[in-house]
Amino acid sequence: MESHELAEFLHSASKGRLSSTKAEIILKHVQRDNVPKLEYQQAQDFTVKSLVRQVRNNLFELSAVDDEIEKLLQEFDYPLTSIKGIDNLTCAKLIAEIGDIRRFKSAKHLAKYSGVAPVTYGNVL
């Protein structure tokens, strides 16, 4: 691989964070290590590139699923995602587990149902 090819790839893959200087450093180290090409290098390169494409596609699909979950969550009047650490998926899981939150008389009842209510034990002698 030529320096400019690696530079273009790194620039694109890093969304502009890695420069052509980084590509030259990487190539210099590879050349210095004098790594021989393997007998089936082309097949291995193809396999690695295929796996990278699959990972990118999976990330795209996960993003699309998250978008669909976000649209679905708008049907509910639960502002759970306003709580720090609660993303769309966690919110959807909570709604799926709890169901209609209005069935609980108070926040204490919901906390008790979910098992997060604090319990105080007095000294029993």
What composes the largest sheet?
Answer: none
Note poorly predicted spans.
none
Q: Given the C-alpha coordinates, what overall shape results?
A: elongated
Distance between the termini: 78 Å
Overall helicity? 55-70%
SSE-based structural type = mainly alpha
Tally of contiguous helical segments? 5
| β-sheet strand percentage | under 5%
CA radius of gyration: 26 Å
Q: How many beta strands in the DSSP annotation?
A: 0
The H-and-E topology, N to C, reads as HHHHH
Name some characteristics of this structure.
125 residues, mainly alpha, 62% helix
Q: Can you walk me through this structure?
A:
The longest helix has 33 residues. The chain is mostly helical and 125 residues long. The mean pLDDT is 83. It has a domain of 35 residues.
List the helices and strands and how they pair.
Layout lengths: L2 H11 L6 H14 L7 H33 L14 H11 L8 H8 L11
Task: Produce a short descriptive summary.
With 125 residues, this protein is mainly α. It has helices at 3-13, 20-33, 41-73, 88-98, 107-114.
